[in-house]
């Protein structure tokens, strides 16, 4: 029996690119059905992440014209990770497998064929991994590669050069539903679920239309969320740094006392200023990192919903 596939597409202010990529997604679904790889019940599920433009109107219109498209709209903008989670949780009630992909058309749509083949071969998770980063600027390529290496150094199980283009079986999603984190970093959380996994490699292309909504600030925020959500090593690094500074301070105290007893002290403000600046800087950075973790704990304890679905283009009981 062919699996029911739902392609989950988060959308935020995508009025320029959505009319182009929606046709590509639909053609791929039809092609997979005609090849006998997926069930005719397969769908494309668009998730409107509180867009400020006409994205939701476009999605609604597309769904009226096509039997292969569905849409849900969140009550407000909750960010890419929460929008993606909303789509995955919505789709798991109807699908055997889901494939998440960005709306911009940069991810190679043809990699879906290999993902489905890998699932039929026994894999429950299939990661879409970029073969290289030639299309990125030097700055983005360097920072991205440094981020993945840094995450692995901190003990996080991330797949190198993998973002959010992946296949997940319903079995995986049912287990992942028990992960209640408010601060989501899906590319780090999915590997924690386990199950058999594999990778499919592809070339990433230029955006088909519009501009990227992932600013440097958003990428930095996502990276910091990933680090603080998946690892406590920064806290341990601070502890180690504190021990080193304490030992050096103790040595400095002994040196100061010995020097004073020998009558070789020289009055000066430069050395005192340098020491105070160093210790103050270390303390402020340490407090900032610790405060970030405390803030995450504060948000987690509230247990607020990670998303709220305001509208659907179909009845929930379908």
Topology:
Layout: E1 5-11, H1 18-34, E2 43-48, H2 55-65, E3 69-74, H3 80-91, E4 97-100, H4 111-120, E5 125-130, H5 138-153, E6 162-169, H6 170-176, H7 186-193, E7 197-202, H8 216-230, H9 233-261, H10 270-302, E8 309-312
Helix pairs in contact: 9-10
Describe the structure.
The chain has an 8-stranded mixed sheet, sandwiched between helices. It has 2 domains: 5-230 and 304-312, Spore Coat Polysaccharide Biosynthesis Protein SpsA, Chain A (Alpha-Beta Complex), CATH 3.90.550; 233-302. It has 318 residues and is an alpha/beta fold. The protein has 10 helices and 8 strands.
Short summary of the structure?
This protein is α/β, with parallel strands linked by helices and 318 residues long. Helix content is 50%, strand content 15%.
In CATH, the homologous superfamily of the largest domain goes by the name Spore Coat Polysaccharide Biosynthesis Protein SpsA, Chain A
Could you name the ranges where pLDDT drops below 50 across 5 or more consecutive residues? none
Q: In order across it, which strands form the biggest sheet?
A: 7-5-6-4-1-2-3-8
Order of helices and strands: EHEHEHEHEHEHHEHHHE
CATH architectural arrangement of the largest domain? Alpha-Beta Complex
Largest sheet: 8 strands, mixed
**What is Rg?**
25 Å
Beta-strand fraction estimate? 5-15%
The 3D shape can be described as elongated
Structural class: alpha/beta
Distance between the termini: 21 Å
Helix content: 40-55%
Count of domain modules? 2
- CATH class category name of the largest domain: Alpha Beta
Estimate the mean pLDDT confidence: 80
CATH topology of the largest domain, by name, is: Spore Coat Polysaccharide Biosynthesis Protein SpsA, Chain A
β-strand number: 8
What is the overall number of helices? 10
